């Protein structure tokens, strides 16, 4: 379980995240939405303990009962280290090491099948750059699952993927225990998340169940994201249902 309480992130005298609070109980899939510069990726960095130099945080970040706000990843208890799936799978994986060696688990083939990868023997023997972008991203999700973390944080995991690869990555994310999906695309979040939280200029402007937020958006930011997403047929069908 994750509890974020009054989280603030500052860059010198500039506040980029202002008193943000939310919870992710076991089994929840929460979408954290916002435009570029809204502070959502800074929140992800604080949650996993990798704040860039020059940024500081205050408030509470409680992961499985441990308050780890401001604590770098190596100094955290193993159970308080959320697994991370980054946007750029090509740099998230070591290009010089085969997929099998990076998974480092006896059930690697089963994990690959769990995220929708079928040719497991070939993939385990491959180096990351020998795979497609969608395959690499699903390998990253398998690596996150191999860590057996109670929470997976995925930061824009479908950006730059084609529609088919995007759908396969989102399907793979449905297999994680609890999920924080960070994205600017409300159509993507609506496909996999049961709750949504909308961020604007470091402030929460809307939160609630996915169905309620889509049906009755309260903030201008949310309405704008929905208006943009409605240009895509799959989203129109989703909202209509």
Question: What does this entry look like structurally?
Answer:
It contains eleven helices and ten strands. Helices cover 36% and strands 26% of the residues. The longest helix has 14 residues, at 133-146. The strands form two sheets. Strands 6-7-8-3-9-10 form a six-stranded mixed sheet, sandwiched between helices. The protein has a four-stranded antiparallel sheet with strand order 2-1-4-5, covered by helices on one side. It has helices at 40-48, 89-92, 99-103, 108-114, 120-125, 133-146, 163-173, 186-192, 210-215, 220-229, 233-240, and strands at 2-11, 14-24, 29-33, 55-63, 66-67, 83-85, 152-155, 179-183, 195-200, 203-209. 43% of the residues are buried. It folds into two domains: 2-82 and 152-160 and 179-240, P-loop containing nucleotide triphosphate hydrolases (Rossmann fold, 3-Layer(aba) Sandwich), CATH 3.40.50.300; 88-148, no CATH class. α4 crosses α6 and α6 (133-146) packs parallel to α7 (163-173). It has 241 residues and is α/β, with parallel strands linked by helices.
């Amino acid at each position: 379980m994750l509890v974020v309480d009054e989280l603030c992130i500052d860059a010198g005298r500039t506040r980029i995240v202002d008193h943000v609070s939310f919870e992710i109980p076991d089994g929840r899939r929460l979408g954290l939405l916002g435009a570029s510069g809204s502070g959502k990726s800074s929140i992800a960095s604080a949650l996993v303990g990798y704040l860039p130099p020059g940024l500081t945080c205050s408030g509470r970040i409680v992961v499985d009962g441990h308050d780890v706000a401001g604590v770098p990843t190596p100094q955290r208890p193993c159970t308080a280290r959320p697994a991370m799936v980054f946007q750029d799978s090509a740099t998230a994986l070591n290009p010089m090491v085969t997929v099998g060696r990076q998974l480092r688990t006896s059930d690697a083939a089963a994990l690959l099948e769990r995220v929708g990868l079928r040719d497991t023997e070939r993939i385990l023997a491959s180096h990351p750059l020998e795979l497609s972008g969608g395959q690499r991203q699903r390998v990253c999700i398998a690596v996150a699952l191999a860590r057996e973390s109670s929470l997976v944080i995925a930061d824009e995991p479908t950006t730059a993927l084609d529609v088919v690869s995007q759908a396969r990555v989102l399907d793979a994310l449905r297999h994680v225990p609890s999920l924080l999906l960070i994205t600017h695309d409300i159509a993507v979040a609506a496909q996999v998340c049961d709750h949504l939280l909308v961020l604007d200029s470091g402030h929460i402007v809307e939160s609630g169940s996915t169905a309620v937020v889509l049906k009755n958006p309260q903030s201008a930011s949310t309405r704008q994201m929905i208006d943009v997403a409605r240009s895509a047929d799959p989203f129109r069908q989703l909202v209509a249902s």
